[in-house]
Design brief:
single chain; eight-stranded parallel barrel; two-stranded antiparallel sheet; globular; TIM barrel protein
């Protein structure tokens, strides 16, 4: 199968990001193949074998992903995360947490958006695989150290995923990124990397943003970086 990713990957990954040995791709960036998990994994593998994030952003995509993973496919990645659904949520927290907890052990991390969790304690079922992501300027929860600390009090085993573009949407100086790392660096499992528009839509990383994000990213060199746009 011809890769849809490799010809377009290098222009969006420059400097510090291109040189990071544990960079990988989010399948959420591959809109045309959405739902075709074998094709998505192959495209992500063509980009990098270091890491991948399997993005079931709609609850309707989760059964297909679970079925795919239950077939024990070959996943050559050294780090595998799943982005839990944030759209079309119908199951409720208890049922969704139960479904996520049944994902096989090959999944290292399960990323949760704090603004979608009505009952955060339900996700204790995920144990250490639960990972809380900081939110962008559109969201009413999970954007500050205080808001995230309250979430971690409900999920004491959870890890932390730093989204640098979300930080920028709230604080273009990126001081917030350092505050979040000062507070939660020991929980850090991986980083989301992209640029965002004024409407907080993920787009390929620009050279200007990469330079701006550099100091924060340099504090995260020991964890995978997941590109959310190619």
């Amino acid at each position: 199968m011809t890769s849809l990713v490799a010809p377009y990957a290098l222009p969006s990954a420059r400097g510090v990001v291109a040189n990071h040995l544990r960079a990988g791709l989010s399948t959420g960036a591959l809109h045309e193949q959405r739902g075709d998990w074998p094709a998505l994994v192959e495209a992500a593998r063509d980009f990098s074998g270091a890491a991948v994030e399997l993005a079931a952003l709609s609850e309707r995509e989760l059964p297909g992903l679970a079925a795919f993973l239950d077939e024990d496919p070959w996943l050559p990645f050294r780090f595998v995360s799943v982005h839990a659904p944030t759209k079309h949520l119908e199951l409720g927290d208890r049922a969704l947490a139960a479904a996520l907890s049944e994902l096989p052990p090959v999944v290292d991390a399960i990323v949760l958006h704090p603004d979608t969790l009505a009952d955060p304690s339900a996700y204790r079922a995920l144990g250490r695989r639960a990972v809380i992501e900081n939110m962008d300027a559109r969201k009413g929860a999970g954007t500050t150290v205080a808001e995230l600390r309250a979430m971690f009090e409900r999920l004491p085993e959870a890890g932390f995923c730093l989204d640098v573009a979300h930080v920028w949407s709230l604080d273009p100086t990126m001081a917030l990124g350092h505050e979040l790392l000062d507070a939660f660096r020991l929980r850090l499992t991986h980083v989301h990397v992209s640029s965002v528009t004024a409407a907080c839509e993920h787009v390929p990383l620009t050279a200007a943003h990469e330079e701006l994000f550099c100091e924060v990213l340099e504090r995260c060199v020991d964890v995978p970086w997941i590109l959310e746009a190619v």
